[in-house]
């Protein structure tokens, strides 16, 4: 084999040597991993170009051709990923959208692997050392060129950005040069070896040489501009941009580093010996500062902190600063300290303002609680007023009707017997005529009290109108209803009603109609109002019969 055959292999070994050099000379970070993967993919191209020339086996030659172009697809993705990391756009890779970046390159790789109908590549003179590219080759070149264009766009926007630091722009500019060099060599390879007439001689190694030159640009940027040295670059940036004032001391209390956020009224310089008592302003309470100073001086391995107030000349308000001290320990030995100064003036003002606002809010909340309680009690009263009789305090007719309608509708699903009592005070008109309406009101109230003393917890007493009352007895059979009705009648009859301006107590009797309901048909339960009208009509007839038979008695209705 002549020297031409070995060109790609030589370039491969040079790329491999640079790969080993980068791997051995820098601290590995995420950006290093991206670059090393990118570098490795660049090595495969010259290796594949060399391997094609080392075998006469047609299948092996085709395999190496496919490997070279699959590698080119990976290389295009590597370009874009490396560009995103380099320009500080890596947050895009944390989203689910970044997976779409791989789809075009994957399509290109699949076209290369399957080479349908030799539309990507086909041999010339029985081999792939000299080969002819079909229309799919240009599709693949277009896909890979799109990745390059996107990378160039990202770099160009970074160089035009006003928020990127000069250091980042210098790094991007160096890498952009390498990228342009490689693009020019690849374009030259396509022009000289793909689009030129077949009679022209093949110029080997153009793409491989472009890759090598671009890598040399990268290596220069890595070591001259510290492109990948994230720790070193970030160190000073963090120190200078962090809002905390930072003071670093060695083991002899000598100031070795100060950042730009250190308050100017704490007058310290690098190389000076530090005295902790200097940073404690005059006027601070000794009981507040003494424990901090004792901890600093006598327990250097323990962290310490304190809040101090600085009153600076020409400043209207004082500054509140939180000082924190932490030891720097290496192999169980303290080699220095880090002291941070945090300006908490705004925080202190916010805390004071918050306390003041909290006191106001507490007073307002207490007023709101009082108003809410009053509204609740008012609502309770209004609710009671809507369902109770204002004179006697028992339920009114509308409430009882509503409850009975619900009972009728539920009866078909959960049947249980119930009873309705309709009672009337005997000769109530004569009481009004004899003693007056106020005495009549007293009789109504006292009668309700006497009835309620005999009722059960779930029974409902409602004023039906005038001197008539209705009692609903849920889950009560015929015998139980009769027994309870007798007790009600006896309780009312024995009740002695004391009325103002009347010498002797008044006694009354009641007449009562009783209706026992054991069953309501499903058809009837669909129209509860009609059912109630029927029930009240039946019990009213029983009451009317009790009056006609001489009053002070109970008559069972025919339900």
TrEMBL record:
Give the GGDEF domain ranges.
Answer: 416-559
**Top-level lineage group:** Bacteria
Please give the Gene Ontology molecular function terms for this protein: diguanylate cyclase activity
Q: What are the TM regions of this chain, as residue ranges?
A: 6-27, 34-52, 64-86, 98-116, 136-154, 175-196, 202-222
What CDD domains does the record tag this protein with?
Answer: GGDEF (cd01949)
Keyword list, A-Z: Membrane, Transmembrane, Transmembrane helix
Instruction: Return the InterPro entries for the record.
Output: Diguanylate_Cyclase (IPR050469), GGDEF_dom (IPR000160), HisKA_7TM (IPR031621), Nucleotide_cyclase (IPR029787), Rev_trsase/Diguanyl_cyclase (IPR043128)
Kindly give the PANTHER family that the UniProt entry links to this protein: DIGUANYLATE CYCLASE DGCM-RELATED, REGULATORY COMPONENTS OF SENSORY TRANSDUCTION SYSTEM
- The name of this protein is Diguanylate cyclase (GGDEF)-like protein
Recorded source organism is Fontibacillus solani
